[in-house]
Design a protein that fits this description.
It is a single chain. The protein is an alpha/beta fold. The chain contains 15 helices and 14 strands. A hairpin with a 4-residue loop joins strand 6 and strand 7. The longest helix has 17 residues.
């Protein structure tokens, strides 16, 4: 019965999207020979972190074809990711009624549309736009009662894998038009002087010198990706009582993280400072001024890496091979349990084993030790995700 109800809810969500375009009826178009002067639409209807990871695709296209016009279709909360320094010419925000945005976008007559989302809703929308050429992923998804291969909605499709590095996979959508030298992913969020000044003012208001700040980001979209709250409280105490002092823990998050952060503060002896619901640009400025960031597998992980700050990344059910930023300033802690990566965390509030052992096994003392090593060496060492399993259990 529960499974049937899940399918009904899924069908209710996908129904309005499927009505936009019948599957397996590809639009007739001609594949562009070049993206020079092309009008391009990128569709990214996933989370903020996924949006930021598509900036490598944007940079690749703009580097090869500066005369091209790149426009973005995303949800409202993701729009801030593309608002600064990402080479985007225009942003469209998707409302709850997909038919309204389709009518507006059809008038734009895009030369090519890249669907980075790999979900049924975005595939239907892209098909309905009537663009000259569309590119997406080949993936089998369910509308609740039937399986649908979404490659049928596009003129051209690329392989999709849950194990592949997502930024590289997004970049592969444009590989037919990019020169070989642009095959490497380069993700960057440009932080200007105004962002840094906003960040500095925010820290000063808390009575903290930027050089002493260590940002702790306990939030994540999916609950199983969140390191235990009691561990964050313990980590705050360890940082504040560090021998020699000089560090101040600051908890940072969005509006949905506020209740959780209040519990962490209440359970901590030092009562750390808190930053809630600041604009993305201000958060980026704060991160660039801090000594380092400790963060779950979340948007703030990708933002921290993009702005070039030292990062300790806590991975649990998700695979670091798929989403961990591949830059020198990121140290990944990952237990690599026998059941990892987990395919259940999108729907389950907790692990099927009864507790999130993949994160429970990474102790606060170990995380603090990794932070100390980064600060003492003033550089970040790459850690093989598989090695994190052994170290975290010691």
């Amino acid at each position: 019965m529960l499974e049937f109800l899940r399918r009904v809810r899924r069908r209710r969500r996908t129904g309005p999207w499927l009505s936009l375009a019948p599957p397996f009826k590809k639009s007739r178009g001609r594949k562009p020979e070049t993206l020079a002067n092309a009008k391009i639409l990128l569709v990214t209807l996933n989370a903020m972190g996924d949006g930021l990871m598509t900036t490598g695709l944007i940079r690749g296209i703009k580097t090869a074809y500066p005369s091209s016009s790149i426009e973005i279709l995303c949800h409202e909360h993701v729009a801030a990711v593309f608002s600064l320094g990402t080479m985007v010419d225009r942003i469209y925000v998707l409302s709850r009624a997909p038919s309204s945005i389709v009518a507006a976008l059809r008038k734009e007559h895009f030369d090519i549309v890249f669907d980075c989302s790999a979900i049924l809703e975005s595939a239907c929308l892209v098909h309905a736009l009537g663009a000259n050429w569309t590119v997406g992923f080949s993936r089998v998804l369910s509308d609740g009662f039937r399986k649908i291969e979404i490659s049928g909605f596009y003129n051209q499709s690329k392989p999709y894998s849950e194990q592949a590095y997502y930024p590289q996979m997004a970049l592969s959508l444009s590989e037919d038009w990019l020169p070989p030298g642009l095959s490497e992913v380069s993700i960057l969020y440009q932080v200007d002087a105004a962002c840094r000044e906003d960040g500095r003012k925010c820290l000063i208001e808390l009575g903290i010198e930027p050089i002493d700040a260590v940002m702790l980001a306990p939030g994540a979209k999916w609950p199983p990706r969140r390191w235990p709250e009691k561990y964050w409280s313990r980590l705050c105490d360890l940082i504040d009582s560090r021998e020699g002092g000089g560090l101040k823990p600051i908890l940072i998050g969005g509006k949905t993280d506020e209740v959780m952060i209040d519990r962490i503060v209440a359970d901590s002896k030092v009562k750390p400072s808190v930053i809630i619901s600041k604009p993305v640009s201000t958060v980026a400025g704060i991160l660039t001024l801090s000594r380092g960031t400790i963060v779950n597998d979340s948007f703030l992980l990708h933002l921290s890496a993009a702005v070039g700050v030292n990062v300790v990344a806590l991975f649990g059910p998700g695979s670091p091979e798929r989403t961990s930023p591949r830059v020198k300033k990121v140290k990944v802690l990952y237990r690599n349990d026998f059941c990892s990566p987990c395919s259940q965390y999108y729907t389950a509030a907790r692990c099927w084993r009864g507790a999130n052992f993949c994160l429970l096994g990474i102790k606060p003392e170990f995380v603090f030790g990794q932070l100390e090593s980064l600060l003492n060496n003033d550089r970040v060492m790459n850690v093989n995700p598989g090695l994190g399993s052994r170290s975290a259990n010691k």
